[in-house]
Amino acid sequence: MSRDKGTIRIGIGGWTFEPWRGTFYPDKLSQKRELEYAASKMTSIEVNGTYYGSIKADSFKKWHDETPDGFVFSLKAPRFATNRKVLAEAGGSIEKFITGGITELKHKLGPINWQFMGTKKFDPDDFEAFLKLLPGEFEGRTLRHAVEVRHDSFNTPDFIALLREYKVAIITAGDSEFPQIADITAPFVYARIMGATEDHKNGYAPGELDRWAERAKEWASGEVPGDLKTAAKDQPKPEARDVYLYVISGHKEKNPAAAMQLIERMKQ
Fold it and tell me: Which of 175, 180, 192, 186 is nearest to 155 (CA)?
């Protein structure tokens, strides 16, 4: 990365999706080579499978070996840690996940997405207890944590202040029904855009892709894009920040095309 901008990584959610065969993936490409192919077109992938169940350490090692240098995986943390009434009791689930082999990804281990259900409301004391359970490093590797909240009760300066204290990112929801909270709260930025439609060849209209590319560049220089909503008045002093942006949900068949278009715009 340059001195005044962070590294921008752009990708999709997962790499196994049948409608991508013949549209994103070439005809007759072996399923075993889909990750290798996806990683040649993207600069990051968010793994969804880790949300639903345990992944073996050997699988993380295999993913590391099948992807190029500079590629990064973001991992969705297990739902067993976040889908609970009392977050302070999530310690066992968090520890099991962190110690379960994720560091086999080595330098390709990116942020961890702790996703909460839309029914989960902001309880300052309990949420802080949860943040205290998130380790800053494991086996010599710095861990980057991000939280994805989907209830409007989190749209408050108190929540932002809490995340800044623990250097945890708020995941910005783009083009979705979920609350948009674009405050900068960590040394990196994490965004998930969910507005791809069947109507456009690349999921989004060209102008919409241009704007998301500009937003990513603004984040990388430490600025909050002026057309996104924030919960707090003040933002940190601008400084270079890494950006992780994923094209998720929406008309999923078009997500790879949208991500590749955004990656092209990063070169301009």
Answer: 180
